[in-house]
What does this fold into?
Amino acid sequence: MRSLLGVAFLAVTAGTAGAQAPNPLATRLDAVTLQALAPTLEAARRDSLPVRALEAKALEGSAKQVAGPRIVSAVKQMADDLREARLLVKAPGAAAPSDEMVIAAADARRRGVPANEVASLAHTLAPGGPLLMAMAVLGDLVQRGVPAGRALAAVTTLLEGGATVDALSDLPARMDVALRVGASPIDALGSATRGRGARPANAGPPPSPPGRSDKTPGNQKK
Amino acid sequence: MKREPEDLTRYLNGELPFADLPPALREEALKFEGLVAALDREPIRLPSLRSGIEAIIRAEPMPKWRRLWDWFRTPRLSPLTAGLATVVGALAWLLLPSPESRVVPVAAVNPVVEPQIPLRTIRFTLEAPGATTVAVTGDFLEWRPEGVPLNRLPSGEWAGEIRLPAGVHHYAFVVNGREWMADPSASSRVEDGFGHENSLLIVPATDPAILPTATS
It folds into this structure.
């Protein structure tokens, strides 16, 4: 009987606690910041943007002990980035892009990939393909100094050649091997794609057999 | 004379009559007798087990409130009460005010994801031999500063695994509880909007349909 009463008490207590589970934004942000964020989040909901990513940005700012106004500014900037990215990746007449695709496209833009290349890659790939990885690798290549057009050509060639997600995610790490020994970004890309079905715009002779990098892939950790 | 102490001992043990004691020992013997007689010879009385039990049986019954209290606080679990407790606990859980209130708290080590989304195990490592603590956190943990602590390996490397859903993830390491840093081994980094960088992780979907999709 005592056990019965005890379990019932715990269940009711846990249920009450669950009912009061607060929104992390409300508990981790001050009231002023929360109020300042509200219009941005509301507009993002209306525009079908990934609100969860915006909330995560606000929580990230809180975790990093950033001042409230700066958090608001960063979230507003991110909302603008996501709004633009959504327009870029949404093909006319096609279904709405996934939240993840919008986030990946916004990341690519933030990493220096021009709007045209982002849109082009998004519209080139068939739904269900390795869209996210391709977009991330495009950003990786541009971030490593490869001109956007050549980076896009390399990625699309790999995709047309049936490259797997693993092969795509390997590319930046393979490129880093060449960069570390002083190769230019374009030469490093050529070295990384050699024998992998991709031929960058400046690629000269047909590729020779590939060497295998021992480096652990950075994009796909396991 | 050498036997004198032995004679005294024999006398005191009752093995030798007083008269047989050497004259030199008789005075000593009398002194010992005096000392022994002065001892309290009252026997020590210990209560017997039987008398103790009888005393308990004859005692007046405890008040009801005391008996109830003793019953409540004395642990005694039978299969019947355990079963009843489980049933009542389950009923109490089901009859809570609203289903929305039954939020399962997210454990510190688990990412914030919908339960039906398949997860992939991701291993995070950081080379930081001088660190006292290393944790990984990111959007998958609502950027909780405590994150998921990594374990120190004998090599000085820190490592830990988290199960993550497919998609784009931003993350960072927290070293010694206060220093934020991007993953040096990650291929992809992205500016965090606060003047630093996060690492970017793509967890590929085995089935693209599992990715969350916007409603319009």
User: Anything to note?
Assistant: The radius of gyration of chain B is 42 Å. The first helix of chain B runs from residue 4 to 12. The beta strands of chain B are 119-127, 134-138, 148-149, 151-152, 157-165, 167-175, 179-181, 188-191, 197-203.
